[in-house]
Amino acid sequence: MNAKEKKAYDQGRMVEAEITLENLYRILDEMTEQPHERSHIIACIRDLERDTGKDRAYFKAQQNSLED
């Protein structure tokens, strides 16, 4: 894989991670499951926040900018 392909691949993975993070926030907000299941979701969220540098505030700002 050349450098250009690797960069495109990495960018695609980052986009997937951001989409997953946003979806996990939605799932967490709607969950009424057992606490241990919530803690697993929260752990995944923390990992993705660390890896992407994005958090809930980022997605809220994105949503607000689309609504304006």
List keywords for this structure.
single chain; 68 residues; mainly alpha
List the helices and strands and how they pair.
Layout: H1 3-30, H2 35-52, H3 56-67
Helix pairs in contact: 1-2
Short description:
The chain is flat. The chain has 68 residues and is mostly helical.
Structure description:
- The chain has 68 residues and is an all-alpha fold.
- The chain contains three helices and no strands.
- Helix 1 runs antiparallel to helix 2.
- The longest helix has 28 residues.
- The model has no long low-confidence stretch (mean pLDDT 90).
Strand content: under 5%
> Whole-number average pLDDT?
90
What is the helix fraction of residues, given as a range? over 70%
Number of strands: 0
**SS-derived structural category:** mainly alpha
Low-confidence stretches: none
Summarize the helix and strand pattern as letters: HHH
Distance between the termini: 42 Å
